[in-house]
Amino acid sequence: MRLFVGTSGWAYPKWKPEFYPKGVPAKKFLNFYASVLGSVEVNYTFGSILKPGQLQSWLDETPAHFRFTFKAPQRITHFNRLHACEDALAAFFASLAPAQQAGKLGYILFQLPPSLQADLSRLAAFLAAPAMQHPQASRIAFEFRHPSWFNEKTYTLLREHQAALCMAESDELQTPEVHTAATFTCFRLRWPGGYTPEQIAAFAERFRLLAQSREVFVYFKHEDAPTGGLNALALLRSLAE
What we know:
By secondary structure, the protein is an alpha/beta fold. It has helices at about 30-35, 55-60, 75-80, 85-95, 95-100, 120-125, 150-160, 195-210, 225-240; strands at about 5, 40, 65-70, 105-110, 140-145, 165, 165-170, 185-190, 215-220. It has a nine-stranded parallel sheet. The chain is globular and about 50 Å long.
C-alpha cells in the first residue's frame, strides 16, 4: 500500500450521519475511521504533548496498515521558529516512539507560520540539530506559508536531508509541486467547500502515478461539516475504479 488517504483529525461528532453512522459512539470514531480510511493527520500534537498511553490506545484501535502523521508542536515552529528547540524536539520525538515501533508512523509535519520568511541558515541549522538524528525524525515534511521559501535553494536543502516539501493547497497560497524526498510525498488539500467529482477524479489519476515511485500521503481539510471525510472516501472510490 503506497497511497494513504485521510483527513486532519477524526473526532468530529458533527460528521454524523454522513460520515459516521448514527449508532457509532464517539469513543469508537477512530476505530470506524480506520476501517474506511488509511491514515490521519494528528493536529493535537501542535498544542500538546501526547499523554502516556494515549498514543498506544490509538495504535490498538487501528489496523496494521494504518498510518499516523503528527504536526510538530507550535513551541518549535511558531514560538521558537526552529531556533533553540533541541529539548522540545527530543521530547516530541520520544513521545512518538510507540508509533515508530508499531510501523504506523507516516511522517512529521513542520508547519511554519506565515510570518516566517525564507531563512536558509536557520533551516539548515535546524535540520543539522542532534535531535534530528532521532529515528522518529527519519520522515519529516515542511509546510512553508510564506512564498519566499519557494525557490531552488530551499528545495536543494530539503533534498540534502531527504525532507519533503508539503504541497498545501488553499485559497491563500499555492505550494509548487516539487518532490524533494525520495521515498514519500505529501499533500494537504484545504480548498474551501471541498472538491467536485471531476477534481477528485483528476487527483486520483495524479496520485496513482506518483504512488508508482513513492508513498503518497493525502489529507483533506478538517471542519465541522463532513466534507473532508466524504472527499477522502470519494478519492478512494475513484482510485478503485
